Amino acid sequence: MTRLVLGSRNKKKLKEMLALLGDLPLDLTDLTPYPDAPEVEETAETFVGNATLKATQLAPVLGAWVIGEDSGLCVPALGGAPGVYSARYSGTHGDDAANNEKLLREMSALTGDQRAAYYVSTAVLADPTGRVVAEVEGRCHGSIVTEYRGSGGFGYDPLFLVPEYGQTFGELPPEVKQQMSHRARAFEQLRPVIVRELLGGG
């Protein structure tokens, strides 16, 4: 069975990928089976740049198909911040609570349409030689609420209000988020490429 590696150690991202692609006859995993896999420095200033770095650097080292994925939250009123720095907005990588608190502080004076925001997910698929085969982007638009709502999801989810539902990603059931999140929309575009390239489908 062909292995497809998510170039991340984020278990929550892997869980979402399994929900989105788990029905395909593939061996889906993250970097857990590869303790010696290099840490890819996310030095690019764009989501697609960082996703490409992960895919192209990891694939030849692992000798496997790799999806490099970079995602984040963009607030136009903050000049697009947190953007590519979403995971380390507060200065500490992966500290969701500190990142959320900084976002609330930065937006404390903003009202109405100024609180508009969108999530971006860019995914890049590289073959075992490191050649880029596909590059996709998914977006999900909403707004930032003024206080935490819900305990589901991760990252900025308890603050990200989805207008169609009147609830945050932190409040919505995972199966709803998986249908319409930025990552779901990116992987939906990637899916036919994976079927064609890895499974020989039409």
Automatic annotation (TrEMBL):
**Iron-sulfur as UniProt keyword:** no
How is the cofactor bound here? Binds 1 Mg(2+) ion per subunit.
Keywords assigned by UniProt? Answer: Hydrolase, Magnesium, Metal-binding, Nucleotide metabolism, Nucleotide-binding
Query: Which positions bind substrate?
Result: 8-13, 71, 154-157, 177, 182-183
GO molecular function, a single term: dITP diphosphatase activity
Per its UniProt entry, what is the enzyme's top EC class, as one word?
Answer: hydrolase
Q: Which InterPro entries match?
A: dITP/XTP_pyrophosphatase, ITPase-like_fam, RdgB/HAM1
Q: What is its EC number?
A: 3.6.1.66
The positions annotated for binding Mg(2+) are 41, 70
Active site, per annotation:
70
| Entry's Gene Ontology cellular component terms | cytosol
Cofactors per UniProt?
Answer: Mg(2+)
One GO process term, biological-process aspect: nucleotide metabolic process
Q: How does it assemble?
A: Homodimer.
- Write out the function statement from the record: Pyrophosphatase that catalyzes the hydrolysis of nucleoside triphosphates to their monophosphate derivatives, with a high preference for the non-canonical purine nucleotides XTP (xanthosine triphosphate), dITP (deoxyinosine triphosphate) and ITP. Seems to function as a house-cleaning enzyme that removes non-canonical purine nucleotides from the nucleotide pool, thus preventing their incorporation into DNA/RNA and avoiding chromosomal lesions.
HAMAP family, alphabetized = Non_canon_purine_NTPase
- What name does this protein carry? dITP/XTP pyrophosphatase
Q: From what organism does this protein derive? A: Frigoriglobus tundricola
